[in-house]
Amino acid sequence: MIKDILNTAEAAMKKTLAHTEHEFSTINTGKAQPSMVESVMVEAYGSMMPLKNCATTTTPDARSIVITPFDKGLLKAIERAILGANIGLNPAVQGAIVRCPIPELTGERRAELVKVANRYAEAGRVQIRNNRRDALEGVKKIQKDKTASEDECKRAEKDVQTLTDKYIGFIDAALKAKESELRG
């Protein structure tokens, strides 16, 4: 039963780490990455859908993103969606594609993006701590129900804290890598 709580806590923490790393990947570091635009919501066929569901995204070089819609009628909608997403890109329709040149990052913009990365990291840390709280509540319930010894519960609490420290460390390492990438 305690093992289930630990496994559930670790699975939740892994999911939180993956989400935080995905958030980091959406931050523009001056290098073209498809993830920068894939989650932009496009109005297509009377509803909103992520760009990745209505177009392919490629990076022919480090300074541009090329979007090829599955339906050529979506070119203008994709251009409007990227402009409206306010992600610092100026898309241009060129024939059957939308090209997004990646602007050079200014020092001010880099500092701004470091702050965004720190916010994402803090949100990840908070979620990890919430996962810890949930696991500790489960351990306390087991202790209260007397379905495990007090020693087993104390050991489980230490294991939960160890997991928490480990995953917060992973988030901190990912943040440090992203900051150094942003600072160039």
What does this structure look like?
By secondary structure, this protein is α+β, with helices and mostly antiparallel strands. The chain contains four helices and six strands. Strand 1 (41-44) and strand 2 form a beta hairpin. The termini are far apart. The mean pLDDT is 90.
Features:
elongated; two-stranded antiparallel sheet; 184 residues; 4 helices; alpha+beta; single chain; 58% helix
Structural class: alpha+beta
What count of helical segments does DSSP give?
Answer: 4
Number of strands: 6
> Strand portion, in percent?
15-25%
Unreliable spans: none
Question: What's the main sheet like?
Answer: 4 strands, antiparallel
User: How helical, in percent, are the residues?
Assistant: 55-70%
Main sheet: which strands, in order across?
Answer: 3-4-6-5
How far is the N terminus from the C terminus?
A: 48 Å
The dominant shape is: elongated
Q: What is the residue-mean pLDDT, rounded to a whole number?
A: 90
Strand-and-helix sequence, N→C? Answer: HEEEEHEEHH
* Overall radius of gyration: 22 Å
Write a brief structural summary:
This protein is of the alpha+beta class. The chain is built from four helices and six strands.
Topology, pairings included?
Layout: H1 2-25, E1 41-44, E2 47-50, E3 55-61, E4 64-69, H2 75-84, E5 92-94, E6 97-101, H3 107-145, H4 150-183
Antiparallel strand pairs: 1-2, 3-4, 4-6, 5-6
